[in-house]
Amino acid sequence: MQKIIWSFLLAATVVLASSKIWPQDTAPSSTPEKHDITYNLEFSLNELEDGKKINTRHYSIKLTSGSNRVLKIGTRVPVETEQGKFQYLDVGTNLRAHMYGKDDAPILDVDVDISNFAIPDQATHSGGQPLLRQILISGSQTLIFDKPTVVGSVDDPNSKRTYQLEVVATKLSR
């Protein structure tokens, strides 16, 4: 009899634990929520000197909420780590974007990593390996449609230049 009671209690505990009570508006769906709005994201990497824009690079990607995109432009450079062993570094522009949140106010997480070789007189250090310069702008931003939004900016410590990442988001389809 005691075995039957324990079996019943165990079965009841398993049933109760697996059937959580959810408020109607937060109940998990048996099918994942589908995000079918596509957004066009136009990124501008602005280079400013003394507050004046001297150069702009443009990048464009299409993204749906809940998805990720990576854009890479550059060169893979072999760097010797041990005798006869090499590791490859990405030198150039790497842009990673992820969107989530509500369709009318999506949130964009973005990382832009820009690297290049140092000027020729700084091109290598004593070990003979290439010397690289790097700028990283990373941030999260609630998107405002059809208007430029600054994601982040960074000052170059070796010059009077500032690099600013800006995005313009446009809804394409539903």
Low-pLDDT parts are 1-32
The tally of helices reads 1
Rg from alpha-carbon coordinates: 25 Å
User: Order of strands side by side in the largest beta sheet?
Assistant: 2-1-8-7
- What sort of overall outline do the alpha carbons produce when their principal axes are compared? flat
In round numbers, the mean pLDDT is 78
Order of helices and strands: HEEEEEEEE
Q: Percentage of helical residues?
A: under 10%
Which strand-content bin applies to the residues?
A: over 45%
Return the structural class.
Answer: mainly beta
Q: Give the N-terminus to C-terminus distance in angstroms.
A: 61 Å
Care to count the β-strands?
Answer: 8
Largest sheet: 4 strands, antiparallel
Count of all domains: 1
Could you characterize the architecture of this molecule?
This protein is mostly beta strands. It has one domain. 10% of the residues lie in helices and 59% in strands. The protein has one helix and eight strands. The chain has one helix spanning 2-18; strands at 38-49, 52-64, 68-82, 85-102, 105-117, 132-142, 149-155, 161-173. Strands 2-1-8-7 form a four-stranded antiparallel sheet, with no helix packed on it. A hairpin with a 2-residue loop joins β1 (38-49) and β2 (52-64). The radius of gyration is 25 Å and the shape is flat. Mean pLDDT is 78; it is low at 1-32.
